[in-house]
Amino acid sequence: MSDTTNSTTNGADALALAQALIRCASVTPRDAGAQDVLRAALEPAGFACHDLPFAEPDTEEVRNLFARIGGEGPHLCFAGHTDVVPPGDEADWLHPPFAAVVEGGVLYGRGACDMKGAVAAFAAAAIDWASEHRAAGRALPGSLSFLITGDEEGPAINGTVKVLRWMAEHGHVPDACIVGEPSCAEELGDTIKNGRRGSLNLFIEAQGVQGHTAYPEKAVNPVHALARLVDRLVSQPLDEGTEFFQPSTVQFSTFDVNNPATNVIPERARATCNIRFNTLHTPKSLEQWLRQQAEQVQHETSARFFWEMKVSGESFITEGGVLIEVMQQAITAETSLTPELSTGGGTSDARFIKDYCPVAEFGLINETIHQVNERVPVGDLHRLKRIYRRMIDLFFQHAAA
Questions:
Q1: Catalytic hit among 83, 349, 374, 380
Q2: Which domain holds residue 176?
């Protein structure tokens, strides 16, 4: 049934490494040995590895790994994560989610696409690159590094953010970074993520005056006021999009009163919404927009509004430059496709990396991520290794030109 030796490339085996990583049940924030597997593959090739565990009060410690080879010249970083989301009901899987079974030329397992497959493919490409230079007695044309976190699928407070600070403090800031998120929609090579929308959550409370429903003139109904504010926030589009971004969106996910009585006007009502915003907005400008709308409704209803804003990430775009050019050339050379530049989807750790260097995302097809029977064709895994290897070679060629 299973075939764990189906390798179609020379050098380091991306499939074997992906299987070893998947067999570590690293459901966020647990590591379960995944980063030890990666370290064991990288160190013999000459990478200096640093274990970087971080924790906050009342949070579980997160393991992170930084590995680098070469200390001079251009510095290219690969960023990824070894944590995965829970598998769900394991009885629904065709194969156990952490068994890493290959059947019919397809690798099954939690993290196969998101994103242990990409971590394995880039590691295999990097190992071959370093080994070939060493075998030929050539000096490395630059520096290659890995920023690997165990906190991407979690709250993302003890992972990439803190590793980046450590990298800056220790002289490891890269010139460019490739994030191995599963970027492709239908075919390997069809999409590069060259930016992301920002994301923020609003927790809004309307405060009124409690009273009897038979005497509404003696009360201020916060439910009516909050409903009016919600309508204002969603009835008019924030924008029409940009060249690189779709229109910003406002989506309410909760509207709560917790009032068991049918004849009582409550004192408070609450709602929660998520705003996905493009580069036409900032969290500050969006809060100002909310304030203006709330003040209008407050004037109309006499209810008072309070809110809390939590920002997951700001919007960003990498419009061009060497990194995008190199990624496009490598993908086209291996697949004959012209990848689309996209900013769709949710957030990723690229939102943190963009403050340090140009960053873009490229990885496997995202069709089965977070699903039961997450899987990747073995051929795509080997093809991704070859694409990453071309990206590495082209990056240093462009940097030397």
A1: 83
A2: 14-196+315-400
